[in-house]
Amino acid sequence: MITKFERKVIAGLTAFLMCLSMVLAVPVSVNAEAEQTQDEAVSGAKQEETVSDVQMQDETVNDAQQDVTTGEEVEEGAAGDIQKLPGMSAESTDAMLNTTSQEDVIGSITLKKDGTEESGSVMLQEDQISVRYRLNVEEDGQYYITATGDNYWDMHVSLTEETEDGTQYVEVINSRVELRKAGTYYLELSDHSSEPLRTIKWKAGKVKDITPGEFDIELNKEKPEAYYRLTVDETGVYYVRSVKGMSVKIRDTQTGNEISSSSFYKFKKENVYEITLGRYSMEDVSEKWGILKGIEKEVECDKVYINENDSVYYKFVPQTTGYYSVEGDFYDEEWNQIYSEEMIAGNAYYLAPYGRYWCIKQSEYTPSDPGGSGGKVQVKVGETYTHDMSKGGFYEFIPEETASYHFRSNENVKLEVKERIFEINGIGTLEGKVDYSVVMRAGSVYWIRLYEMDAATVTWTIEKTKTKTAVTGTKYTAVKGGSDTYDFVPGKSGDYSVSFNGKGGVLVYDDAWNEIKKYYSEEAGESGVVLSLEQGKTYHLAVAALEKDMQWEIESAKTKNGFIYKNLSDDTVEILKYTGKESNVTIPDKIDNKVVKTLGAESFTENKTVVGVTIPAQVTNLQYGAFASCTNLKKVTFAQGSQLKKIKGCTFVRRNTYS
Q: Given this model, what pLDDT does residue 443 score?
C-alpha cells in the first residue's frame, strides 16, 4: 500500500514530467496509479481540455483501469462542437480528460450463503465520482446488488472480476448477477450528478431459491424489494397470490423475457424463473404470498359462471371460429395474452375473469370499422381504401406470406402499424404523404391506424413491395420521402460497404426477411456501413432518403491492414470498420496517401480484442457508437495537436445495467 507521503511525491514527480512534456511537445500517457495520486494532490482543480467527453462511462463503464489521454489541449471555443455523453454534467465532463475514475478499494462486502442482506452507504466528495469495494462470496449462486442515490439516472453499478486474462466485466441484469466463491470481484458504485456532496446507499444479498409454496414477505422503506429464483417439479399453470401494495415481476431466464400476466403463469419444469417483489405504494407489506398450482375448469360460450376462488382458471374451446369477449383476459395455450384476435374452432384458450359473475359472448365484429358500419374490415393487398378522418376505428391485416409490404397515401396523414399492440419498425415516411415499407410475417395479426393531419378524407393502399436489383459499383438515387427495396446477390463472400452522400437509412434483411442490420446516417454528408455477406445468397436492402434526394451504392469493401475504409469526396478517408487482431491499435495517419479524417459509425463496436487505441491528430470526427461495447478497451490516446471536433452519441457506451 502506498503511503500518503509517497503519493504526494509521485504526484509531484508526475506533475513535473507532464509540464516538461508540454515544453518538449512530447505526448505523455500517465498510468492509472500515478493519475490517481495526482488527482488527490490537486483535488478540486479543474482541467480545461475541451474534448472532455471521451471518458468511459457505464452504461458506459467507469473502468478502474481506463485512461483517456491527449498530447495537447484543444483550443477554447472548440468545445461547442463536442457532444456531452449521456448522464454527465458539464462540471464532471470538463475535468475528465487525462484522468481516470479509479478509486482505492474502501472496504469489502461479504455476501453470505445464508441470505443475510448486507447494506451500507457512502458519501462522495466533490472531486469523487465513484468508490470501489472488494466482494467476498461465501457460496456459488445468484446474488442481487442495488444502489440508490439522490438522482437515479446518474447512478451506475458495475462489477469486474480479476482473472488470468485480466480484468473482465461481469454482466448485471435486473440487479442480479451469478457469482463464484473462488472469484475475485470488485464492485464499483458511481454517481455522475453535479451535486457537491452525494450519498450512495447500497444493498446486496443472496437470491432465495424457492419451489411452489407460501412465504412470508416484509417490504418497507428500508427493504423495498425481495428477490427469488423459482423452479417447479411439474410443467403447468400456477397461480401467484400477491398481497395488497405488492408488485410482482417474473422473468424467464431461458428466453430472457419478462412474463406478463394477471395472476396465472405457465411455468415449465426445465426453466428457471426470476421473481422480484416490490412495493407500488408507500404502505409497508407484511403478509404471506405464494405460488400455487392452478385449478382448471372448462367453460362454454353464452353461459353465466360464478368466479369460485382466486386459484381457479378456465379453459374455453370455441365451437366456431370467430371473435369472443369476456370480462377478463384470454390467453393461448402458452399463456400469452390475446388481444382482439380471431379464435379458431377446436383450439384451447384460457381465461382469468375479473368479476364475480361473467359470461363469454361471441362478438359480431372486431376491430371496429373505420367507416362506422360496424362490420369487420380486413385489409387486402392491392386494394385502395378511403378513410373518413372524422370517424375512428382501425384496420386489420393478416399477411398470407412473409414479405415486405408497402404503404402509400395520396393525402397527408400519420400512419401507425402494430403487431397486435407492439410497434414494428420499417423504413420511409410515416407522417405526410405516406411512403413506407415494413416486413410482416405470414399469419400474424397487424393493426393499422390513421391519424388526422390536414385532410378530411385519406385514400391509402397496401401492396407487396416491388424489389429492384442492385449490383456493386453502381450509384442509385433514393428520393426524399420515399423508400425503395433492392435485391442484392454477392458475387463472393466477404465484407461490403453501403455508402450514402446524404441523410438516410438502410434496413438489411436476409433471404427469409429476417433483419440483420439497421443503419441511419445522422449527418447530411457522406457516411457508410459495413455488411458481411455470403456468396450466392439473396439479401434485401430497404433504402430511404430523409431530408433530400441522396445517392447510395454497395461495393466490395476496401481493406488495408485490417481497416475497412471509404474514400470521401474531399480526398480524405473514413474508416468504416476495424477487422484486425491487434490489441493495441494505432489509427493510421493516411490510407492511400489520403488523410484519415473520420472514424465511422460502429467502426469498433463490440470489438473484444482491442485494449488501447491511439488516434492521430488529423481525425476530426468520431461517429455514432464508434467504440460502443468494446468491453476490454482501457485507454484512448489522442496525438498531440489533435483536431478532434465532434464526438457523436454512444461513442464509448458500454452495455451495463442500471440498478
A: 84
Determine the straight-line distance between the first and last CA of the chain, rounded to whole angstroms. Answer: 32
Structure letter (DSSP) for residue 9 = H
Question: What pLDDT is attached to residue 646?
Answer: 84
pLDDT in the model for residue 67 = 41
pLDDT of residue 297: 94
Contact 485, 536 (CB under 8 A): no
Q: Express each pLDDT in 252-271 by its tens digit.
A: 998 888 887 678 899 999 99
> Does the predicted model carry a pTM greater than 0.70?
no
- pLDDT for 136 equals 95
Q: Which helix (H) or strand (E) holds 415?
A: strand 403-419
CA atoms within 13 A on the CB side of 193: 20
**Residue owning grid cell 447500497:** 202
H-only helix segments in 60-216: 90-94
In this structure, are strands 105-111 and 130-137 parallel, antiparallel, or unpaired? parallel
Dihedral angle, C-alpha 612, 615, 616, 619, nearest 10 °: 170
Say how far apart CA 591 and CA 572 lie, in whole Å: 9
Are residues 277 and 246 in contact, defined by beta-carbon separation less than 8 angstroms? yes
Instruction: Give Cβ neighbours of residue 137 (< 8 Å, ≥ 6 apart).
Output: 111, 143, 179, 180, 181, 183, 185
Give the orientation angle of helix 32-41 with respect to helix 4-24, to 10 degrees: 100
d(CA 478, CA 544): 6
| pLDDT on residue 564 | 93
User: How does DSSP assign 356-406, residue by residue?
Assistant: SEEE-EEES-SS--TTSS-S--B--TT-EEEEETTS---EEE--SS-EEEE
Burial of 643 (0-12, 13-18, 19+ CB in 10 A): middle
**Pairwise CA distance, residues 141 & 274, whole Å:** 13
d(CA 61, CA 102): 11
Tens-digit pLDDT profile for residues 154-197: 678 889 999 988 888 898 888 999 999 999 999 998 887 777 77
Q: Cell numbers 378530411 label which residue? A: 456
331 vs 339: CA distance, rounded Å = 9
Residue type, 96: M
Which residues of the chain fall below pLDDT 70? 1-103, 150-154, 261, 281, 339-340, 364-376, 392-393, 420-421, 522-524, 654-659
CA atoms within 13 A on the CB side of 87: 22
